[in-house]
Amino acid sequence: MVWDPFGTLAATLWITGSQWAGKSTVARILARRHGLTAYHYDYHDARGHEDRRIADRVRRGVRPEGPAPDAMWVDPSPEEMAATTLAGFPQRFSWALDDLRGLVSGRPLLAEGWGLRPELVAPIVRSTMQVVVMVPTEEFRRRQLATLDRAAAPPDGVRDPERARRNRVERDRLVAADAVRSAAALGIRVIEVDGSVPAEGLADLVADHFELRGV
């Protein structure tokens, strides 16, 4: 049983899936439309949780600042990178739960982010209808990489920026595929984003899934 003192987690709506599928954009649209509180996992994971990440590294006797850039992005294979990322999600998810369980709202919370994995969320929710997985089609992923500077930019401080960029793209593809497999096993809906529907239309689709029309 996950500790949920205010019943916040059980009532939260979750958008998970892959990088570059429009999760954050859809969450912002739904928050404004329906008066929801949106929780952006990526922002908290990259900033608000850094002190926990450093403390955990110190406890384990590894570099407090984390792996060197080449050791993270250039030297391992994409498969190794994906495995490392997936192995780290449960702990990072526990930190996100700490953020969420301290919130109380008269309306549902809406949490979005690639680290909110289907298999981690499923034991918490009352119904799988509270969860949706958004992933880009391969064509849309390529379009995002071609048009979004932050999607195509290589990691900082690496000796081989192009290899690091390729590794990250392939890692993200593997992590997305894992999310789809997990969702299928749990009966969680997957929305493939191909760019043919604008963000407002995707928000309509997700709102219908969450039955937010009356909220």
Automatic annotation (TrEMBL):
This is Cytidylate kinase. It comes from the Bacteria. InterPro entries: P-loop_NTPase. It comes from Pseudonocardia adelaidensis.
